[in-house]
Design goal:
Strand content: under 5%
Number of helices: 7
Order of helices and strands: EHHHHHEHH
Strand order of the largest sheet: 1-2
CATH architecture of one domain: Orthogonal Bundle
Distance between the termini: 45 Å
Shape: elongated
Number of strands: 2
CATH class of one domain: Mainly Alpha
Length: 104
């Protein structure tokens, strides 16, 4: 996921994290300077849904505009065997009692 807070804030005319923090406080969300800095400069590892709701309300956007999916990043995390199988359309054999390979 790509965190798009600064771009959405710029589109709303907010150029500094202090201004964003003030607007969030006006909307009822008190964020520490450290947390605001982390949200402003990087991609958060987690965010409360209530906080995301207020951020979206302040910026006039949806969560989908703040969190941009990166399917190529997901594909790169797959194990090599799964990537090869996905590229060729072949299914890898299942392990265990119920195998997907027919008996010879």
């Amino acid at each position: 996921m790509q965190w798009n807070l600064r771009m959405r804030a710029a589109q709303a005319g907010i150029w500094k994290s202090t201004e964003m923090r003030r607007r969030l406080a006006d909307a009822g969300l008190q964020i520490s300077a450290g947390k605001m800095s982390a949200l402003w400069t990087g991609t958060p590892t987690s965010i409360r849904l209530d906080d995301l709701d207020v951020i979206c309300a302040v910026l006039g956007c949806t969560p989908a505009e703040l969190l941009i999916c990166e399917p190529e990043q997901v594909a790169a995390r797959r194990p090599q065997q799964a990537r090869t199988a996905a590229a060729t359309g072949a299914l890898p054999p299942r392990l265990g009692r119920h195998t997907s390979i027919p008996p010879a």
